[in-house]
Every structure is written in structure tokens, then in C-alpha cells.
Amino acid sequence: MNSETIDTGPKAEGTLNIADFYQNATVLVTGGTGFIGKVLVEKLLRCFEVKKIYLLIRRKENAAVSDRLQRMLEGPIFDRIRSTLPDAKERFAKVVAVDTTFEREDIVDDVDKAKLCNEVQIVFHVMASIRFDEVLDDAIALNVTSAQRLYSLASSMAELRSIVHVSTFYSNCDRKYIEERIYDDIPYGGVDHIQRFFKSLNPEEKKRMTQLVVGDMPNSYVFSKKCAEVIIDREFGKLPIGIFRPPIVISSYREPEPGWVDCFHGATGLCVPVVLGKTMWYYGDPNIKPFMSPVDHTVAGMLATACDIYRRQCTILPVEKPVPVYNFAFEKNDFTYGEYVGLVCSGIRNPIDRFLSRIKYRVCPWKIFPRILLWLLTLQARAADEILSWFGKRGSNMKTISAITSLANAVEYFRLRTWTMDNSNVQRMLTLLSRDDAQRLDFDGDRIDWQDYHKSYAKGIAAELMRKNHRRQQYRKSSMAKLLHVSRFYRDSVVLVTGGTGFLGKVLVEKLLRSFEVKKIFLLIREKRGVSPTQRLQQMISDPIFDTIRGSLQDPKTAFEKLVAIETDYTSQEFVKEPYKSDLLNETQVVFHSMASVRFDLGFQNIMDTNVTGTERLYNFLRNASRLQAIVHVSTFYSNCDRTHIEECVYDDIRYGGWDNVRRIIEPLTESEKNNLMPAIIGPLPNNYTFSKKCAEVMIQQQFSHLPIGIFRPPIVTPSYKEPIPGWVDCIQGATGLCIPILKQQLLWYYGEPTARPALAPVDYCIAGMITAACDVYERHEANRVLQSYDRHVSTPPVYNFSFDKNPITWQQFINLVGAGLPTLMGRKLSTLRMRITRWRILSRITFWWMYFVAFIADMFLTLFRKRKSYVRIVSGLNMLADASEIFRCNTWTARNDNIQRLLSSLSEEDEALLVFDVDQIDWADYFEQFTKGLSVVLERRERKRQQKKKPDASAIV
């Protein structure tokens, strides 16, 4: 909108009265923890008598907003306030953090909303995603939708005077001449249509369409900023709002200290190699003049802009007031990229380095030379990292080269083009400043002495590099020194366990009772086949697994009295009823959610209800647990087995719009329709079970990452190694079930890759890892110890890949080791022929046909003697198990297990002997000897139970 306006206010010097404008004002800032935001907050606190500053801060990596604010105020940028102002403490108290979620329509809760609407007078919207490689709909969500939601909130602010929307000078960089107005020429039907269109695309399609839609624009960032400007003009033009367009923002000139910077984006990041003495040539036109602005000048311009918006609102008398735009760029005192190289190098102290840097660091108009240099640097970095790896150290040279190259490519567009512009509004503001305000707010870019500025530019970059290196070293030292005192963590704690009557659950409960001084263990147990939860608990503790407690503890009865069975129905929204509901919410401190359906052949709806919906109900319930310290969600290492390498992060790549959309799709379908649709929905994942586990992880990340929760991914869980009984197992599923024919000394070859390496872990090792992970989740949540690594991405919530690869065995070795534990010499010799993993599917089918034939003959004889047939059923079950686990025998996965390795190194001395879970240290020959014995015991136990069931029938016949 560009209607004629009449400015009825005075235009003399001092018209703005900026000091009076901010006197006793309440200011709202988004992006206050960022580069520009920190300088803005510091300037407001130091130079103006504001009443209060609200910072809208998002919870990040499980860090509370108050903690993020505290860390920000402790930074060196606020040292000047601490050292020069006697009332520094009172000034810092003016800054208030507000927990914000821009993903919701209501970005703050009702209490904070009422407070903001009643108090806020000035708004600075600085927050934005500045990633140039963002997919377009994500960039729009972060830079457009968040602004819409903020300004919708601002529409309800009773005392609102001014809003400054921080855009970018390059929001219309597809034009050569940029005016101080909004260009409403968004292609493809506008931003709303683009958002609707992108919703139906998969990630790969979104990447391709992003490049097409942005067109002549260099990236999604500037395109989304243009969209935000159009939305403001269209929807919020009646508000006292203005658009502030800064150019490339670089380190400070004077305030709060010369050369201050805390991030290495854009032009600053490209200068890091100069400071480090590295050789780096960038492709570009050395005669192009860039638009750059020191961050303190930029913030001063923003502060003046807010006042000018208010002045215009009060004095301009148009029919329709246009949204004012401020092109914060100056062209009278500029320099070229070629001159910029020299200016940056002039700040290097050492004369030799200063001389050599002019050769090492250049902007070159021929692309071939930077590419050749990049190839040489990459080769050098790879060699350096390889040498470091020989000494057991992690190299970061390749990562540094890749980061600088990515940044250089991202801003190449701006090194090849120049723009002209109108900056009348900014120039007019300069004329309206009083002398005092002009001293307080110096933002005239035409008066910057760039030679003087760059004397502190390189120094500021070097100082920040030193700060980052110091923080990295301090973090690593604290990580090494910080020990997990697991025994202390569980002392007098109340633990909640789901799936406590299952294979993992029994070992977990036994370990907690035997090795830790827990106060109470709540077990959520379902009624099963008419057996009550209390009866199922009694059956569980009568299992031989608890004989160690009965034989080693002085008072085992007291230990078992700590177990409390609670009847549960996961199919109901209120799955726990009073009085247990209140007990759980008031007492529970640690939660292990190990309950899951592990049947690969279960119906789609059933397994999703159990593994996803049931989990969602549990965690919704735990939101209100007042003493909650840690939750360990037991997933599976194979939840993302469609990948060959698995990181310790949640992969949110569920097809068909994500789990919520899948749930809506399948809800009206019949069971047969759901099962027919299942293969298309789960895609490359092998079965419903792994898909359901993946959905649960994504659901946790999206809905419950604010809770103290961690995702534990065990691999194929096998019988125990040492505790509580060597070789103990009570189920014959998965890899354990496939070993039964070995003990029966039958001929059966399985189809698979003999050299593939399975990820295996004994159940007692898994439980020790889970118990330790709970303590780590608590430490990370309470002390804000989310692993902020400088070398890799850290996921939220923390993920623990319980996978080890330094001491692997192949599937064929697995089969051979089980056979080596047979009691007879002949059995051991023949087992390698009877049981094999073969690459030829036909050989596997022939052996199964033979087993079916033998089983059929055996069942015929049983029928003749009027006995119950079971052999064909057993072979069918084994065949089904072999087919279901085929994918795991044919493939090998690699994984990051940094969190698990960190747990191993963080155990205190008192816990090291108590919690053994380093699978890399297992003696597999010794382990499989126990494995075979344990499996033999469970088969004998099941046979005795079967015989005992038959005896009453025989007596009845007599």
C-alpha cells in the first residue's frame, strides 16, 4: 500500500525525543538471545530508563527459559553494565523471560498473555531463522507464521506504541534498485498458497520445489523475509508497525566493546580463516561494494526507528497509513570486496602474518582458482584428520573446511551483485535526532571510519574464537569430571515400571531390588486371562530369576514388599484409577516404560494402539507428576532400520504427513483395510513393530520433549551374561527362538548373509544401561546438561543407541558359538552342518520342507495314539519367526553411540562394578556357553510345565 501521506509534525532537530520515548517503557523483544538481540537488550538496559524488558524465549534442548536468560546475562557483553553502573543488579532484574512456543497459535500461556497485553508498549521482532538452506515451508513457518502469531498477540496490547519488524535489506534482492516500500509480487499465488501446496509434498519434493519457487532469489531465507513483509502490509497495516531492513550485520564498532561478536555467520564467518592464518580464496567480484553495518549501529537504528514509527503514527494524517520501511544501508562511505580483504588483514597484529594474509585471503573473479585451492585444502584436512584418528583423537579439520565452504557458497550470490537503494526514512531520522540522542544513538553509516573499525574487527573475531575454545575445553573437562552417582540417585526413590512382567521388565525389577535401595516400585500390570495384577505379580516373583534375592538378601520379604501392582488398562483414556492415580502422580520419580507389543505379525491397529497410543496416554498422565525426575522410554535400535547408519537422534521422516495424519487416515477403515494399507504406510521398514516404535519416538519429540525423558534403543536382546543367573531367559523370541533347532539337534538352514553382523546385547547389560541412562536424563534435565557438543548435532530428547561395534560377531559365528555349547562332542561337531546361515534361499526352503515333512509324520503318529498334535504348529511358528527376522540376518547397521560411551566413562567408582554394560568387553565364547545352558534350562522348564498340565487329564481318565 503506497497512499499519499501528510506529515503534520515538526521536522526540526530533536523531534524524536528518544530518551523520553523509552522512559519507564515496557519493551517486548523476540530473538533476545541472538547476536542482534543481545546488543539490543544491553543497549536498552545501559542507556535508557526502561521499566521492564520481556524476552520471548523458546525452550531449547530441555533448557528452561529462565536458565537461558541467566546464561545470556552472565555473558561478556554485559560486563560494561556490571563494571560501570552501580545499580546493575536492579537493571538486570528488569529483564523477564517468557516461555514461548511459536509452533502454537497461542505463543504464550494465558497468564503471560494477559500480562503482555496489559503492559507492553514497544515490540522488537528480531527472531528469525537465518539458515540459507532451509526448506521453504520451514523457513516460512519460522519467519512468517511466527511473525503473524506475534502480531496477532500485539493486536490485543492496550498500550502499544510501536512495533519494529526486523527484516533484511536483501528481502527484494531480485531488484537492482530497492525503494523503501513493500513489494507485493510473491509468485505462485502468494505465501498462503505456497504453504498449502508444500503440505502435501514429501521432503525430497520440498527441496526441489524450494529451488523452483524462490526463482531469482538466492535462498529461502530472503524469500521468506519478503513474504513476511507482504503479510505485515496485508494483515497488520493498522498496527503502529514499521519494517527495518539491515544489511550484512557485522561485529560492533564501539559498543558494548569494539569488535564484539558472538557468532560466525555471513561475512564474519568468512573472515575466520584470516584470523587463523589459513589460506582461503573466495569466488566473487572484487569490485563489488557490499552493504555492511556494525551491530551497535544497527541496534541504534532500530531504537530510533521504534520512536519514529510512534511519531509517524501520531503526526501523519493519511487516508490510509502505509507501513513505513527503513532501508538501513549507506552508500556514500563504502568499500569494495577487494578493499575489504585489505581492511580485515590490517587488523592482524603480527606484521608477517598481516603481509602474508593478503596473499592467503582473496576474493577472486575466476572460479577455477578457488576450486583448486579448495581441493588442496580438503585433501590436507582429510590427511590431518586421519593422522589424528591414529592417535585416538577426533579430527575437526574436514568439518571446518566443509562449514566455511558451505557458508562461502551460500553468500556467493551477494559477492557477485551490487544494488542501489533509497534510504530517505533513515536519513530523515538522523536529522530529527537531538544532540543528546545523536550521541546516545550513533547510526550514521556514512561517517564510519572503516580503517579504524577494522583495527578491532580481527581482534574481536580472535577473542570470540578463544572464548569458544575455552568453553569447549571447560565443557569437556566438566564432562570428564562429572560423574554419575547412580546408587545415590536411586536411594529412597520411587520407580514406576511398565512391562515389568516381561523379559526386560523382570530383570529390571530384580536388579533394582537387589542392587539399589529404592523405596518403592510401582508396576503397571494388566489383567490377563482372568489373572489379576496382584496374582500376576506373585507369579512373577516366584520365577527363578528372583532366587538370587531370596538367597543373598537378609530380609527378602521386605524387598518384595516394595513391589506394588497397579491394575492398568491402556485402552482407556483413564488407564489408572483412584486411589492409585494420586499415588503415582504424587510419588513417582523415575519411570521405565518398557511395555510394548513385540509381535511382528500383530495387526496394524493393535500394535499402534499398544506402542504409540498407550505410550501417549502414559506420558500425558506423567505431565502432572509433581516429583518426576527421569523417564526412560525403551524403543528399539531397529526403529530406523531403513537407514544403514543410525545417529543418536529422532528421525522425523514418517511418510504420509506423519503419524497424526496416518492416524486420521486409518481411523475410519476396517481392520482388513488397515492391514492392506499397512505395507504402503510403513514403506521401507520391515514390519508394524519397527514402524510403531519409530512413530512413538517422533511423538515423544513433538509432544513430550519438555519432560525429563530419554529414548533408549536396545538391539537384539539375548539371555543374561552374569546377572542374576548366567544364561537366564524366559522367552524364545527373536534370535533366541531361532537357536532352538540347534539344541534339538535338527537340520535347519536359515536364509541370510553369513557375514552380516547382528547387534546383540545380553539382557543384564541392557538393564544396566537403562538404569544408568535414567540417572543421566535427570542430570541433563536438572543441570541443563544436554550435550552441547561442538563436534556434532545433539538430539532432543537424548537418544541412547545401545549398540557396540568394536567386538562384533557375524551371524554364522553366532550360530557356531551356540552349537559349541552342546553337551556332546558329536552334537558340537555336527551342529555346524545342521545349522547354517545360507545366501541361497532355496537351501533354506528345502530344510524347512524337510522339517514340515518330519513334523507332519510325527503329528500323524500322535493322532493315532489320540494325543494332541503340536509338531507342525511348532515348525510353523519357527518358520514365521525366521521370515519376520530375515531382514536382520541380511543386513548390517552402523551407529553412533556417543551417549552410551559417555555413560560408561561417567560412572563413579562405587557404580562401575555394580553396572556393567560395555558389550565391547564381552568374551563371546564364554557368553554363548552360558547362552546355550540357559536356553536348555528354559526348554526343560517349559517341558515340565507341559507335562504337569497333562497329568490332571490322565487322572481324570483313570
Could you walk me through the main structural features you see in this protein, from its secondary elements to its overall organization?
InterPro entries: FAR, FAR_C, FAR_NAD-bd, NAD(P)-bd_dom_sf. Residues 29-300, 497-768 form the Thioester reductase (TE) domain. The chain crosses the membrane at residues 846-865. α7 (136-154) packs parallel to α10 (220-235). Helix content is 50%, strand content 11%. It has 3 domains: 18-475, NAD(P)-binding Rossmann-like Domain (Rossmann fold, 3-Layer(aba) Sandwich), CATH 3.40.50.720; 483-715 and 762-803, Rossmann fold (3-Layer(aba) Sandwich), CATH 3.40.50.720; 733-758 and 807-892 and 918-948, no CATH class. The chain is of the alpha/beta class. The relative contact order is 0.07. It is built from 42 helices and 26 strands. The strands form 8 sheets. A 7-stranded parallel sheet has the order 3-2-1-4-5-7-11, sandwiched between helices. It has a 7-stranded parallel sheet with strand order 16-15-14-17-18-20-24, sandwiched between helices. β4, α7 (136-154) and β5 (162-166) form a beta-alpha-beta unit.
